[in-house]
Amino acid sequence: MNRRYHAVFSLVFTVLAASLATSCSRSASVTVIVAKPTAFGAAIVESSGGKQFAQTGSLLAQPVIVQVNDERGTAVAGALVEFAAVPGVTFDPPTALTDSSGQVTTSVSLGGMAGRYQIVAFTTDKSHKKVELKIEEIALGYQQALGRHLNDQYCERCHNPESTVERVSNYDNLEVKPHPFTEGDTLNKISDADLTAIITHGGPALNKSALMPAWGNTLSKSDIQALISYIRAISDPPSRSVGPVYAKN
Amino acid sequence: MKEKLTSLWQRLFGDSVRAFGVVSLIFLGSLAIAPAKNFFSEWRHYQHGYLRMIRNRSDANTLQRHFQGGIQQIWLPELGVVDRCTSCHVGLKEPSLADVPNQPYRTHPVIPHKLEQFGCTVCHRGQGAATTISEAHNSTLAWEQPILPAKYIESSCGQCHRGPLPGTPQLNLGRNLLSREGCVHCHTVKLSDGTTIKATDDPPSLSHIADKTSREWIFAWVKDPQAYASTSTMPNFKLSDDDARDMSAFLIANSTPLAGDNRGLTRVAPPDPAAGASLYGESFCASCHAVQNAAGNMVGGDVGPELTRIGSKVKLGWLLAWLSNPRTYDAATAMPYYRFTDSQLATLSGFLMAKADADYLANVKLDPATPEQIAHGKRLVSDYGCASCHEIAGIKKPENFAPNLSLIGSKPVTQLVFLPGMQHTLPDYIATKIKQPRAFGLGLKMPQYTFTPAQIDALTTALLSLNDRSSTLPTSLAVAATPESDYRPAGKAGKLMTDLACFSCHRINGHGGDMAPDLTWEGSSVQREWLVEFFKNPGTLRPSLIRRMPRFNLTDAEVNELTDYMMTVYQNPAVDRDSMPLSGYSQGEVELGRQLFYGKYSCQGCHIVDTKTDKGYIGPTLTQVGSRLTAAWMYQWMKNPQALRPGTIEPNRAMSDEDARALTAFLISQKGGGKSPLPAKGAGNGAPAEEVAKK
Q1: Do B110 and A26 touch (CB under 8 A)?
Q2: Which residue of B has its CA nearest to A157?
Q3: Which of B226, B249, B229, B251 has its CA nearest to residue B238?
Q4: Which of residues 536-555 of B touch A (CB under 8 A)?
Q5: How close does chain A come to B652, measured CA to CA in Å?
Q6: How many helices (H) and strands (E) does chain B have?
Q7: How many domains does chain A have?
Q8: Residue B576: phi, psi to the nearest 5?
């Protein structure tokens, strides 16, 4: 008698709880089918896509491509590669087998916090040991994104040595070479105040080349702050004021 | 069991004193529930966590002094904001907490607005008055606005800012796509100021399509537009072979011939691929049209359609008529009326007709159309709303063909149908709907677009900004966009400028494209002789530019008409062309100008005056600037370039009057070698410039 009551009661309770739980979770679960690897590599290397800048939460312009190699450095097809990072960073696809050239391509969306994100790509070798590769990407907050816009408009044509189809770099034409903004070794040693002075009053303000003109009448103070925050965000090695802190979500 | 219960009852409520005591205890206990809930609340937990965290920091005392315990609230009645987010997000206003890796203690990133003036939920959504994470961040039955994912945050800027902002590239792109990809042909988007978003693309009229192309091409095109041209913006309607057959039958049967739409040539020269390629290059067709090269890369602009397989599409007679004057077929086309000669027409059309793909229509075999097929085709054309984008004789443009999107950013989640496995949120719904519109049910008409993931994010951002808040925002808070002006030049010159499609590339008085320089003040800036010469033989002024002004076969009378109009009408009131002479400056002034140019202002970083020594690649080449610009314009330009052309890259150097005058004297002395405005290609042009300077 007693037992039966107990059994019925617990059954009812379980059903209620289960139905409550399912009704509460409004999104259905997605089952991820992980492919079975057909081969194993010994090392994983970056092909392209590292150290990109994108606005917080948005897609990186270029996909991240990694390659799995064996002991002799030849590409391995059919090896399983998984990508991982802090919550908020998404990969499409998060896992895949390497293609015939030993590569895996994934599109990466960064998290909502500005800063550096570390992405780990890993594969397993023959003895089921994890082999991993760390890649860094940079998420730009509002101010840094504004700085990037100003950089594209005013600075990049001299400060970026790379040319594109739409923009021919003026870097090689200059007698005194400007510093690319990723050049952390040099720029990290210049204080915010000094950077502000150079941008506002031109190179001669700090006994540097007059080829760097004064922008103080063209850019506002907040524009210049935005530029400096962009320069600090993308510098390589990282600038001290931001520090080697990895953003989390 | 029964005895146990009875004895328990006896023990607790056996007599009245016992019963009173027990009931009092239960009463006291229940009274304590409320304070206990308050004491163990989430916000208190986070505030304690914050205090523990700051204790070990070097600026602990300052942070401690700024800290205010208890529930915090930002109340902004005019925005409908009651935000208690700062109860947990304690460090938002502490600049030193930028190194904390995550919320709730990290500093808010620097933005142009103050927290106290805008609150949190205006941008981030969520339930502001809630004091627990789940209620504040997630959607509940009573509150459907969960926190907006970071990748769509720019949509919130768009609630008040109606125009593009430098800090919101994704929103700007999304709004641009809404107009450019033709979304607003079918979907009405009404803004709170009463205006509707206008489409900026120009889908061709189909009323005379039989003049232009074959039924087979239409069949293949409507089946899969991207198979013909990968850059095509026409979406794929996923038509069956039968439907495509009937649609093409109707469009051909419905087409009427247009006078002047077909042209033969009296004397046809044999097509010469080399001459064709060179004419295609000289006419700068690639500034607007793309062609896929052997390596698979698109080369060229995206103003006009891709031409990779143009020979498989158009009829020769139509192409000749189009190239000779495109405005006969389409009065509003962005294509200039080039005034090609007959032999040029033969060369260019031969070159374009050779851009054919033999395989493209090889498998398309259509029997002659039956009246039933044509009638069915007409029904299909109406059903799919083809006339929303294209002008089709006999079919009216449907009104409200697709759902109105004016408030899509506030659409209740309960009114949405989700696909299995997808997140039940509005942003995910919008993004997925754009990505795979037909997946949401049978019989849906929205076609499949070929947007990239970044474009989908941008479109979703733009659509999320169309919400209750943006539509009910007081006009005092809205930041209006600069509307595109409807400026059109008048008279004969105006007709000429329309024919030449100047506005496809140039902007004048707030109207036109941005591929080429703004000409609003052209009359103040250039010398008449130079402009005449430039129309006859346009060169580039900037060494690094790929796109250039094409040469139109203008008559002398037409050149004079255009030049006179521009010199008289496009005058800047602040620049008096006659206030400074074009010559007669003292040797001393010129020499001082030279020193300023190469020394104090180091203009050679961006400009070239002496091709032997200067290498600057950013600004225009100045070897002949003395024969091109007026002295008054140069002087005013150097005093403040942005005042004459907002957004120009040349920095404002705040020059003294003396410096500006000396530099003007130096530059006006740079007359170049000859009269030709062609850019200096070799090192020859520097020397004459110096000679002139020494005179």
Answers
A1: no
A2: B618
A3: B226
A4: 543-544, 546
A5: 5
A6: 32, 6
A7: 2
A8: -95, 105
Read off the CATH number of the domain in which A133 is found.
Answer: 2.60.40.10
Tens digits of per-residue pLDDT, B1-44? Answer: 788 988 888 888 888 888 899 999 999 999 999 888 888 889 99
B613 lies within 8 A of chain A by CB: no
Q: Are residues A150 and A200 in the same domain?
A: yes
Residues in chain B: 695
- Mean pLDDT computed over A168-193: 90
What residue in A sits closest to B110 (Cα-Cα)? A143
Record: contact B599-A170, CB cut-off 8 A: no
My answer on whether omega of the bond before B641 falls inside 30° of 0, hence cis, is no
Same domain, A135 and A150: no
Task: Specify whether A156 is located in the same domain as A134.
Answer: no
> Residue B689 pLDDT more than 60?
no
Check CB contact of B281 with chain A, cutoff 8 Å: no
| Same domain for A130 and A107 | yes
The domain B209-353 belongs to what CATH superfamily?
Cytochrome c-like domain (1.10.760.10)
Residues B532-579 have pLDDT tens digits of 999 988 876 666 666 678 888 899 999 999 999 999 999 999 998 888
For residues A136 and A147, membership in a common domain is answered with no
Q: How far is B694 from chain A (nearest CA, A)?
A: 26
Q: What is the pLDDT of residue A7?
A: 52
Q: Check pLDDT > 90 for residue B83.
A: yes
Interface of A with B in 178-207 (CB under 8 A): none
- The reply to whether A203 and A217 lie within a common domain is yes
The alpha carbon torsion through A15, A17, A23, A27 (nearest 10 deg) reads: -110
Instruction: Assess A225–B contact: CB distance below 8 Å, yes or no.
Output: yes
B420 in contact with chain A, both atoms CB, cutoff 8 A:
yes
CA distances from A90 to A47, B330, B462 (A): 19, 47, 22
Give yes or no for a contact between B146 and B125, defined as CB atoms under 8 angstroms apart. yes
Segments forming the whole domain that contains residue A89 = 43-140
Give residue A4's pLDDT.
54
Query: Number of A:B CB contacts under 8 A?
Result: 129
Mean pLDDT score of chain A, rounded to an integer? 84
B630 pLDDT above the threshold of 90: yes
Question: Residue A6: inside a domain, yes or no?
Answer: no
- Cα–Cα dist B392/B345, whole Å: 29
CB contact under 8 A, A225 and B110: yes
Task: Give the pLDDT confidence score for residue B568 in this predicted structure.
Answer: 93
Q: Domain B577-694 - what CATH class?
A: mainly alpha
CATH 1.10.760.10 fits B491-569, yes or no: yes
Average pLDDT, chain B: 88
The shortest CB-CB distance from A113 to any of B102, B423, B618 is to: B102
* pLDDT number for residue B271: 66
Give how far B650 is from chain A: nearest CA, Å: 8
Domain boundary among A140, A174, A201: A140
